[in-house]
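Records of this kind hold a single protein each, on a pair of labelled lines. With that in mind, the following record should read easily:
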Amino acid sequence: MNNMPKTRTQATGPTSRMDGKRILLEVKNLKKHFPIKSGILFQHEVAAVKAVDGVTFHIYEGETLGLVGESGCGKSTTGRTILQLYRPTAGSVKFEGVELTELKGSALRRMRRKMQMVFQDPYASLNPRMSVGRIVAEPLVVHNIGTKKEREERVAELLELVGLNPYFVRRYPHEFSGGQRQRIGLARALALNPKFIVADEPISALDVSIQAQVVNLMQELQENLGLTYLFIAHDLSMVRHLCDRVAVMYLGKLVEVAESEELYTNPLHPYTQALLSAVPVPDPVVEETRQRIILKGDVPSPINPPVGCNFNTRCPVSVDVCFSQEPELIEVLPEHWVACHRVI
């Protein structure tokens, strides 16, 4: 009997309380701390890198949530921890109402069929010793899905789906361009017909001319297959084009979450305002008149983050309370959440 994954036209998930939208993924107070050890055999923990430090958000079914911030702020670690590639230090991750942090072994492996990842570097994420056919078929082999012939047919179908010639199955990654390799990575991620994909800066390593092609392909796949994305990026102009909502991250914490257009037209957190002021505007008149916000100093170490608000060492509008109390992520406008004492 043919048990290959079938192409979906509509996904399902638990219903949220707002507007009948369904919440596919719910993350609450997620933390991922990497211990720093010393001493004989490195058995004594002396400190910890707080890569993700209390992150809370949700993703609606069928939407794209953009996760943005400076390099090293914890974006990629958040994505990997959600998929349980890194086990969280604390917090909750629910996918379709199932608590992923409590799953182990075969139960977690079955859930991973519904969740996949597209990695940042298409040159490093593909095994150079494996042919394209074996790379795309690997998830099917791992989950023991289909016969050899059925897998070959599925691989050909997937390559066509991402715009590649099925006759490329016997070629190796070094024979392809960066954009083509990222398409191969997408085909591999789609092999098990997932509902949710974490795209970890999938276009940052590509030429500008190729980036739009990959983004357009991702949008087409989302519309045709009913996919839900967590799109991790630092290119704010691309995020505005692709994402329904945007979450801004700084030093392991979320500082602002809002619908895409709302965030770009009405940024409330000082860090978000600084990020958006750095995005070039194609209109020379507007570009000449707008004010840039230049942040002073460097991002503090995640080993020893500041007391109070994480952003207080660089914030141009900080006050006394910012150095003593950590602001909570509060909904100040409908679907617009901000963690800032000056806004709250």
User: Anything to note?
Assistant: The chain has ten helices and twelve strands. The first strand starts at residue 23 and ends at 38. The mean pLDDT is 88. The longest helix spans residues 208-225.
